[in-house]
From TrEMBL:
Enzyme Commission numbers on file: 2.3.1.-
Designated name of the protein: 3-ketoacyl-CoA synthase
Keywords tagged on the record: Acyltransferase, Transferase
Organism from which the protein derives: Fraxinus pennsylvanica
Protein origin, superkingdom: Eukaryota
Length: 417
């Protein structure tokens, strides 16, 4: 489908270029642009109205207060560990100070020990601690039972036990034997939104069904005890969190659902070496395993965002914004290569942007690419300040907080990046 969209965009650009070169009448330009826009608007309408998918409700984990890890506690603990020198401790203190997170973020119990307990059993206990409460809260909110769940998707990037995380959930709540269960691993901060797209596609072939998505990151086994600074960063940034989301294609959910899923788009950059190695799990020279975050990560985030703007814009933007964008591409390619490509005004159709709270630089890079104001980015920055980087589940903490302050608003449009 995306290949077809790109092909049609290329066909339109070629036709428009031919009209410019041949100096045809303006009427031909108008007809070409009109046909192009009408086709995409009609296709978007058909795709969203044929099989609506509703996000009924979601729940976010609020860890207990005794798991809070203020900066002073973190620094005091790492100073007591004999495998870090003063330079490494000073580096971590600097990362915390500039991270954008506050003093009330949370660590799992295993990381409060000195030294941290990074074993398998501690990780399983953390799974129970974060996933069971958040799922039970969702079931209470939506008044459904575990037996009503037809599809279960669990995402956790770095911890993949056997039995799987979905099997742990199914066994705990005695779910049906015909439930469709899936595990997503290694997908990082994008996994939760990716799971929404996955649930949408599964629901196309499973009518009248409920799908529950559980999103978390298990930190107990992710602690890095080495001295490689590119890997130490994750010790300072990641914090405990989890989210549970119920999506369905049942028609009766239209009355009670919080949101309707209009479109979902995915961009894959694994084919690019720079993107592939920007966040890479590997061993250091001493055999300690950690995730290396390279400096190219910000650039990769910007390039990924730019690659999806054209597709997203064709689906949601008004005609005028699309025309300005297409004209700027043609002008840059055939007339003046120094011309900057026009960045559409997405705020004309989107009220709130749910940016991933992966770090202050990431948030600002995405905001720059979409020409967002400080006010637009503030909710993501405040979510980062309050809860830290909770990986894939962090994107749900922003709408959770915002919905409490918008109780009087009946309709609004979110964009999950």
């Amino acid at each position: 489908m995306e290949i077809m969209n790109f092909s049609l965009l290329a066909l339109f650009s070629s036709a428009e270029s031919l009209f410019v070169i041949q100096k045809w009448e303006p009427l031909y330009h108008l007809l070409n642009v009109s046909c192009f826009l009408l086709f995409f608007k009609a296709k978007s309408y058909i795709s969203t109205s044929s099989s609506p998918v509703y996000l009924v409700d979601f729940s976010c984990l609020k860890p207990p207060n005794f798991l809070r890890v203020p900066f002073s506690t973190f620094i005091e603990h790492v100073k007591m560990l004999d495998f870090w020198d003063s330079e490494s401790v000073d580096f971590m203190a600097k990362i915390l100070t500039h991270s954008g997170q506050g003093e009330q973020t949370y660590f799992p119990p295993a990381l409060h020990y000195i030294p941290p307990k990074a074993g398998h059993q501690e990780a399983i206990q953390e799974v129970h601690m974060v996933l069971f409460p958040v799922l039970e809260d969702l079931l209470i909110k939506t008044s459904i039972s575990p037996s009503d769940i037809d599809i279960l998707i669990v995402n956790c990037s770095g911890f993949c036990p056997a039995p799987s995380l979905s099997s742990i959930i199914i066994n705990k709540y005695c779910m049906r034997e015909d439930i469709k269960s899936y595990n997503i691993s290694g997908m990082g901060c994008s996994a939760s939104v990716l799971a929404i797209d996955m649930a949408k596609n599964i629901l196309k072939t499973h009518k009248n069904s409920n799908a529950v998505i559980l999103s978390t990151e298990i930190l107990s086994t992710g602690w890095y005890p080495g001295k490689d600074r590119a890997k130490i960063v994750l010790n300072c940034m990641f914090r405990t969190g989890a989210a549970a989301i119920l999506v369905t294609n049942k028609k009766e959910a239209k009355r009670t659902a919080k949101y309707q899923l209009l479109w979902s788009l995915r961009t894959l950059r694994a084919f690019d070496e720079k993107a592939y190695y920007s966040a890479f799990r590997e061993e250091d020279s001493n055999g300690f395993t950690g995730v290396t975050l390279r400096r190219e990560l910000l650039q990769v985030a910007g390039e990924t965002l730019r690659s999806i703007i054209s597709l997203l814009g064709l689906k949601v933007l008004p005609f005028t914004e699309v025309i300005w964008y297409v004209v700027s591409i043609i002008k840059k390619k055939f007339m003046n290569k120094s011309t900057e490509i026009y960045v559409p005004n997405f705020k004309s159709v989107i009220q709130h942007f749910c940016l991933p709270s992966s770090g202050k630089p990431i948030i600002r890079e995405i905001g720059k690419g979409l020409k967002l104001t400080e006010r637009d980015m503030e909710p993501a920055l405040m979510t980062l300040h309050r809860f830290g980087n909770q990986s894939s589940s962090s994107v749900w903490y922003f709408p959770s907080a915002l919905s409490k302050s918008l109780m009087c608003v009946r309709e609004c449009t979110y964009s999950f990046i």
